[in-house]
Specification:
Elements lengths: L2 H22 L1 H18 L5 H9 L3 H36 L7 H11 L4 H6 L2 E7 L8 H19 L3 H20 L10 H31 L18 E2 L13 H29 L11 H13 L1 H10 L4 H18 L9 H17 L3 H4 L2 H12 L5 E2 L1 E4 H13 L5 H20 L6 E5 L4 H12 L9 E6 L2 H14 L3 H9 L3 E7 L1 H7 L1 H21 L3 E7 L11 H6 L9 E7 L1 H7 L2 H18 L2 H33 L4 H8 L2 H4 L22 H10 L10 H6 L5 H13 L1 H15 L3 H9 L4 H22 L9 H30 L4 H22 L4
Parallel strand pairs: 1-2, 1-9, 2-3, 4-5, 5-6, 6-7, 7-8, 8-9
Helix pairs in contact: 1-2, 1-4, 1-8, 2-3, 2-36, 3-36, 4-7, 4-36, 4-37, 5-9, 5-26, 7-8, 9-10, 9-16, 9-26, 10-13, 10-16, 10-18, 11-12, 11-13, 11-14, 12-13, 13-14, 14-16, 17-18, 17-19, 19-20, 20-23, 22-23, 27-32, 32-33, 33-35, 34-35, 36-37
Length: 863
């Protein structure tokens, strides 16, 4: 472990230990330490796992809860320390100068040599659209998140000012905050509602995203022209557009209504308008250039005179406070108008963000004409980029609903009879979309995603429902979402049918033949297994790319990836480079779900690094050289991959279709109890439970993660590899595919990561709870097979051998996760055996849920 990281972990751990002693006595800390040493010894083979279980069983349930909470808080602090070390490393790299791997600068350098005159074209067409979703995978309470943020700020201050009076006071406050975190309930006591989720996401915007976006654009501009950035019109355009499903995704969530959607956009608008108002006022106050040194242009003088005519009192007041500073006066007047927009003062408010942009460009052009290029293209340009990126709505609110509901609603509308509550709600939602467009522009809310799209008729139904509103019909981009294996295979046929829908053709004409298609990673993986789903998604990308080329369509593929590896997660830049050739084309849209939002966008330095890495990968994945190499590798190795896929799918389906599998899964995992964590507003199932097909992918993955099996991330791959590695020649071909084909490399790397976060011995204890030894043996045999063959193909002697930082993090965490797993197993075993006493059952459930929270923190994954 690097020494600065070791120092922070020890400091935070020691302070937590002091809080344990102060609140529970020395004996509590001794018990925590006893379990800590026991799990480490067990990992080293120096202590039987049965002895660790016996230690945990010997405690009272109250003591077991305290120990579980201690390990959970420890993980929160360790995560914080690792995050600080990442930030420290990024700052050191920046200070050293030069290019950083995965940065925008590296992509521009590589493209400059390969793309020739097409570099400018590539930058002009660049798009990155991260879409925040309320998928319930953030297990931490907001109170816990904010407490951790305060600790983070104090740790930063302490590292900057060690020793001395200020350092001593900072250390005292740090101890106070850690003690508060220890004493804070780690689980939510009430169910979240959708607007709680909206407000939670706003924290990432307020604290990070709004400020980071201009720095990313500046990095791209500097990479394109290192000497000129900030002194000339920017060569980088704003290319990031945030989206949100939070408050708009009603698929299976009865708590998202038309009223919630309206409230969601208003909350977003409040936050972005307040941010723009504050930034505009700050830039205005700082822009103290005098008319004598920087004379205003005719356009600026005319705009200021018009403003004085319309609002004489406020503009005259600004002139008195800033005499001879017309640029400053005009920007401060613009800030007043943004405030009026937020407060809905129609007399002074801007009608649209385009009006604000026009005013900002008048200021910028006036400064540039007066020779103040640095003032024109510095902070003023940053503000322009922010307005272009966020508008007055912050993120494009997207609607999602299940295809079946539209079919029923349209039948009711056409019947002319009384409409059901469900149909009224769908129509009200469309009316709200229309209202949002009138208030904030079409861009603020036009995307309507149809989940489980089976045919073009599913798309036509939404357009027909919208048309039934007459003059109140919104402008819609209706997006098919293909989720199951069959639907992915059928996707090109559906798009062919969509081109016959008049409303779709009109929208294509209006948008320059732009079309968006969403691909679901979660349900396809739950249905086909991770290996076959990966290849099916790749085939769909290839087919849709060919369809787009044939029909002159500018296609954007929207990747519905989850945070976990079992739901399409993993490093975003590697995933992009593994896409089918031609499918990226400079555009990447992806869901950012649950804990991923704060992991990627919670800290400015990390957020900037993430957006740069995605930008790097999108640019490189769109170059001819990268695409040609990927295409050649796909042709060479596809027959091999098909053999792997067939065997992997058969193994996966054989397991989940085994008699009684669903019941067994419920017994061996905390699946039933996960809903009690209250980590989101959405139910765990889309409808009344019939079996695994109705279970959402998040609890499916979450429950397997808790059992330390991580089955959705690797199961079936071992059987697939075994089907083609019977002799040395086939193994050599697999190794060649791993070295040459980004898709195959990503598949094995993600499986390797899943295996590294699992633990066979502890998993066996969970699986045994189901009293189905044949299923336990099947799962463990596949684990052994996958573990052995992944290492053989990658050439690694141990898991994550080539990823030292991640390997270190996993190896350091695993013993402490083991401690929580032993505590969870105690509770789960007792609950599955049956507990008659209500008080004892309540304590066991509390222990179970505390340990679930802790394991999620330790593995940094839920669903």
């Amino acid at each position: 472990m690097p020494e600065p990281l070791r120092r922070d972990v020890r400091l935070l751990g020691a302070m937590l230990g002091d809080s344990l002693v102060e609140s529970g006595g020395r004996a509590l800390l001794d018990d925590v330490e006893r379990l800590r040493h026991a799990v480490i010894d067990a990992r080293r083979g120096e202590l039987p796992a049965a002895d660790v279980a016996a230690l945990v069983e010997g405690w009272s349930l109250e003591r077991a809860e305290q120990v579980a909470r201690a390990f959970t808080v420890y993980f929160h602090l360790t995560n914080l320390a690792e995050e600080h070390h990442r930030i420290r490393t990024l700052r050191e790299r920046d200070a050293e100068g030069g290019t950083v791997p995965g940065s925008v600068a590296v992509a521009i350098q590589e493209m400059g040599a390969a793309a020739g005159g097409r570099l400018a074209e590539a930058v002009e067409g660049l798009e990155f659209r991260p879409v925040f979703t309320a998928h319930p995978t953030e297990a931490r309470r907001r109170a816990v998140v904010t407490a951790i943020q305060r600790i983070s700020d104090l740790l930063t201050a302490l590292n900057a000012e060690p020793g001395g009076g200020e350092g001593a006071e900072t250390e005292r406050r740090l101890r106070e905050e850690i003690d508060l975190l220890w004493r804070t309930a780690l689980r939510r006591n009430t169910q979240m509602d959708p607007l709680d989720e909206v407000r939670t996401a706003m924290a990432a915007f307020d604290e990070t995203i709004f400020r980071v976006v201009p720095s990313v654009y500046r990095a791209l501009d500097a990479a394109l022209d290192p000497e000129g950035t900030g002194t000339r019109p920017p060569r980088a355009r704003s290319y990031v557009r945030f989206g949100s499903w939070i408050g708009g995704d009603r698929d299976g969530n009865p708590f998202v209504t038309a009223a919630v959607t309206r409230d969601a956009i208003m909350i977003q608008a409040e936050h972005v308008l307040r941010a723009l108002e504050n930034t505009c006022a700050r830039v205005g106050r700082e822009l103290t250039v005098h008319a004598a040194t920087t004379p205003p242009s005719v356009a600026l003088r005319n705009a200021l005179a018009a403003a004085r005519t319309a609002h004489p009192a406020s503009v005259d007041d600004l002139a008195k406070r800033s005499p001879g500073e017309p640029h400053r006066q005009f920007l401060l007047h613009a800030a007043d108008r943004v405030r009026a927009t937020r407060e809905r003062n129609a007399d002074l408010a801007y009608g649209s963000p385009d009006e604000l942009l026009a005013d900002l460009r008048i200021v910028q052009e006036s400064l540039a004409a007066a020779g103040a290029a640095r003032q024109a293209y510095g902070r003023v340009q940053n503000l322009i980029w922010q307005v272009e990126t966020f508008g007055f709505h912050l993120a494009e609110l997207e609607i999602r609903q299940h295809s079946e509901l539209h079919e029923k609603a349209l039948a009711e509308v056409r019947s002319g009879g009384e409409l059901s509550e469900m149909t009224e709600e769908i129509l009200d939602t469309l009316r709200v979309v229309s209202w949002i467009q009138r208030r904030f522009g079409v861009r603020a809310c036009s995307r309507y995603i149809v989940s489980f799209t089976r045919s073009a008729q599913d798309i036509a139904n939404v357009h027909a429902l919208a048309a039934s509103l007459g003059d109140h019909a919104p402008v819609l981009d209706v997006i098919p979402l293909f989720e199951t294996g069959e639907d992915l295979e059928n996707a090109p046929k559906v798009l062919e049918g969509m081109l016959e829908i008049p409303a779709v053709r009109r929208r294509l004409a209006d948008t320059g033949r732009r079309l968006e298609v969403m691909l679901g990673y979660s349900d396809s993986a739950k249905q086909l297994g991770p290996t076959s789903a990966t290849l099916r998604l790749y085939d769909t990308q290839e087919a849709l790319t060919a369809f787009a080329a044939e029909h002159d369509i500018k296609l954007t593929l929207f990747h519905g990836r989850g945070g976990s590896l079992g739901r399409g997660g993993g490093p975003a830049n590697r995933a992009i480079l593994a896409q089918a050739p031609g499918s990226v084309a400079g555009r990447f849209k992806v869901t950012e779900q649950g804990e991923v939002i704060f992991a990627r966008y919670g800290q400015p330095q990390i957020a900037r690094r993430h957006v740069e890495q995605v930008t790097n990968a999108v640019l490189l994945a769109s170059t001819d050289g990268v695409q040609d190499r990927a295409r050649e590798a796909a042709v060479r190795f596809r027959p091999l991959a098909d053999r792997i896929s067939d065997a992997a799918r058969n193994a996966f389906r054989s397991l989940i279709e085994a008699d009684g599998f669903a019941e067994w899964f419920g017994q061996v995992s905390p699946l039933a109890e996960i809903g009690d964590l209250r980590i989101g507003s959405r139910p765990a199932r889309r409808k009344a439970a019939r079996g695994l097909e109705d279970l959402r992918a998040i609890p499916w993955v979450f429950a397997w993660t808790q059992t330390r099996v991580n089955l959705p991330g690797w199961y079936g791959l071992g059987s697939g590899l075994a089907a083609v590695s019977d002799d040395g020649a086939d193994l050599a071909a697999l190794q060649d595919a791993y070295a040459s084909w980004p898709l195959f490399q990503a598949l094995l790397d993600n499986a390797e990561m899943s295996l590294a976060k699992s633990d066979r011995a502890i998993a066996a204890r969970y699986l045994a709870l189901g009293d189905r030894p044949e299923l336990t043996d099947t799962v463990l045999a596949e684990y052994d097979r996958t573990h052995r063959l992944v290492l053989a193909v990658t050439g690694h002697e141990r898991l994550l051998e080539n990823r030292k930082v991640l390997s270190r993090a996993v190896e350091l965490r695993n013993p402490y996760v083991d401690a929580l797993s032993h505590l969870q197993l105690r509770a789960l075993s007792a609950l599955r055996a049956g507990v008659a006493d209500d008080a004892e059952r309540e304590h066991l459930e509390q222990l179970l849920l505390l340990s679930v929270n802790g394991v999620a923190a330790g593995l940094q994954n839920t669903g």
